[in-house]
Amino acid sequence: MTSSSRDVAPKEQTRAALLFLLPAFVLIAVFVAYPIVYAGWLSFFRWDGASAPAFIGLDNFLRLAADAIFWKSLGRNILIAATAIVLQVFLALLIAYCLVRIVPFVSRLFLFFYLVPVMVSEICIGLLWRFLYNPYFGLVNASLKALGLGSLQRGWLGDSATAFPAVVVVMSFTYLGLYVLLFVAAVRNVPESLYETAEIDGAGHFTKFFSITVPMVWDAVRANALLAIIGSLKTFSLVFVLTNGGPNHASEVVSTYLYKAGFSSFEMGYAATIGFAQMVLTAAGAFVIFRYLKRARGGSER
């Protein structure tokens, strides 16, 4: 085979690969890249969605910098992300370890129950939990009354002190099953010989979990932590259905505030500014967490 014929094959393979990738590139360009660029462009304008946009320069960004509701909403998103690391990622890893190493005979049954919320629409889950939180006939208040804790009954979603914690509980319940499933697959791939050696040395489940399981599935921990953080910073559906950011912005997050600015106040330019800032902050937060987890893995290996 001559050198020219050897060069032709890689070129043909490259062209074929690009041809197969072209539909994906087109979809990304139309539904991801273009909206991002358009939102960045629109953030420099005042627009109500109907009349012609009016260029206002950096006014929307200056307004955003002084917007207390936006920063409080962003703070709640960050708190949701921090809670997700504990109540979703770490708890899911602990549950996955128990299902694989302690009670493997019921793992399939429990996985089914954990995955039910993942398979159901978030809108349906939100409506279900609104019924459970109902102050008059909801299961939460009825259970408290049956346990003799009637003094703790309240309108969970209508009380500014409990609306946001109630939403966080629903989010943790909804997404926990997905991370349990991902971690079960990771824990099952840990070599059995490592656990056998640890048992010979007299190690218990606590030692095996932190000394073997966590280091061996650290890549899965990092990936799931990133998923949880990104999802927490852009969460919308559950908050919108449960409280719509109320009462009095007590459970407002960035996405619901963006929705109200664009579709209730008809300030499309300002809504685009909120969305653009949300995208930048989410990307920056994901990058920082990814670098931190990578460095933590490197330190543990040393």
From TrEMBL:
Q: Which InterPro entries match?
A: ABC_transporter_permease, MetI-like, MetI-like_sf
Pfam families named among the record's database cross-references: BPD_transp_1
Tell me the Gene Ontology biological-process terms attached to this UniProt entry: transmembrane transport
ABC transmembrane type-1 domain: which residues?
A: 74-289
For this UniProt record, give its keywords in alphabetical order, as a comma-separated list: Cell membrane, Membrane, Transmembrane, Transmembrane helix, Transport
UniProt keyword Cell membrane, yes or no: yes
Report the PROSITE patterns cross-referenced here: ABC_TM1
Classification via PANTHER family: ABC TRANSPORTER PERMEASE PROTEIN (PTHR30193), DIACETYLCHITOBIOSE UPTAKE SYSTEM PERMEASE PROTEIN NGCF (PTHR30193:SF41)
The record's comment on protein family reads: Belongs to the binding-protein-dependent transport system permease family.
What name does the UniProt record give this protein? Sugar ABC transporter permease
Please report the organism this UniProt entry assigns to the protein.
Answer: Kaistia nematophila
